[in-house]
Amino acid sequence: MMSARCLQVPPIAWILIAPLTMRAVGQEPQVGTPDPGPPTAIEQALIERSCSATFTDAHQVCLSSQLNSLRADFGHDLNRLSGAERRALDSACNRIRTEQGREGYLDCLGAQLVALRNRRGPRPAATDAPALPRPPMSVPSAKPTPRAGPMSSVSGVWTGVALVTLFVAAGGALLAVKARRAAPRKCRVCGGDAQAAGDLCQKCHEAAEASRRAAAERADQKRAQQEELRRRREEEEEQRRRKARQAEEARLQQQEEARQREENARQREREEEDARRRSQAAVVSEEAFDPYAVLGVSKHASKEAIGMAYLEARSKYDLDHVSHLGVELQEHYKARARAVDRAYQMLTK
What we know:
9 helices
């Protein structure tokens, strides 16, 4: 693809092309005009107000003439008006703009400018431009006959020169493109011949690929090391938590064992205390045992009376009477029966 730098045209070419372009749009170079710049907004409104709205060549000639006349009298964008003249125009036409709008304001402004020009007197340089007031709307429809004379031959010469310049510029651009394509590509690293598809030679390209692969391998190794380090840290953290759980479980187990030992010790103490109490109660009961009171006889009773009291007591505390009752009551009857047997044995020896 041809670059824009290869298509640059020398400045002399534009100088030669300018007359051809101006002739193509139907205008000749103007010399000595008041101001060749485009009309401002107020100038455009005034000259359009003075010319008909038919878009013909005559309309364009009218606009150009009115613009030249306006600028010859009052300068570009009416800059030759003094401050007093501007205030007079504003005081005369602002009220009309409020009442009649833009069209009335332009008519008032045009009339004031004509009156001001008349007060100033005629211009020093004569001009063929029509007066500023609005001409009649009817404009001749016939196009003016183009002038023939020396300008036609001059324009032809300029046209030929411009065409020759264009051909020369195009040929130079083509030669520059061919020379650029024919020039060998150089490696931007070592300066050797580069490949057609890049700016590196084969050796530098291979070195760059090797460097890229080495960098990729280093990056992979670094990622693997980071992953291994992260895994080890997770394992260490898990092991630490596991040891903490085991230590807590061991502590709780030790507390439970200590509590169990204390409970067993208290149980043994209670059993020993109960045994001691029972032993003391047995000693007391052995010393205070009265066989006569158990059988319900006097100390001077005969053996026959003791035998009859024994049979009566055994019948009274027979277990068959309380076999359907609670265990405590049955134990009480057993103890009373043993006491009756013991009392009878003691009295019948």
